[in-house]
Amino acid sequence: MHGLEHAERYAIHLAWDLVARFGCERRPDEHGEGLAESWATLAGGKDAAGGSRGSLAARLVAVHMTHEARGLDVFPGMHARLSKSQASGDIADASMLLRNATDEVEHVRAGVKWFRYV
């Protein structure tokens, strides 16, 4: 859970950096939602930030189509391990992990949407 917390903190920092750098320069999408508004409702690593600091497309790939998607890749194994321990009372961690996976699906969806737009 400690590693998951660090991964989430990293994603949140990069998402807010995306809003700060690129939020003002994009028109609203077909639903009238602007880039900044879209990510501000979802967001809650210095190396990835530096490597993609000049490109919205690169930032979307680094954060949402790679980093966040990897969280979904490891979810089944983590959930299986927590489900085994859930019988011994680890319900809070299993619940938190399930909520995280649900959020990650939306983050990846939004990343793909904005990557296609850009």
- List the total number of helices: 5
Give the DSSP E fraction (strand runs of 2 or more residues).
under 5%
How many strands appear in the DSSP assignment?
A: 0
- Poorly predicted regions: none
When the domains are counted, the total is 1
SSE order, one letter for each helix or strand: HHHHH
What is the first-to-last residue Cα distance? Answer: 34 Å
Shape: elongated
Radius of gyration, taken over Cα atoms and rounded to an integer in Å: 15 Å
Q: Helical content, roughly?
A: over 70%
Based on helices, strands and strand pairing, what is the structural class? Answer: mainly alpha
Description:
The structure is a single chain. With 118 residues, the chain is mainly α. It has one domain. It is 77% helix and 0% strand. The longest helix is centred in the middle third of the chain and has 31 residues. It is elongated, with a radius of gyration of 15 Å. The chain starts with a helix and ends with a helix.
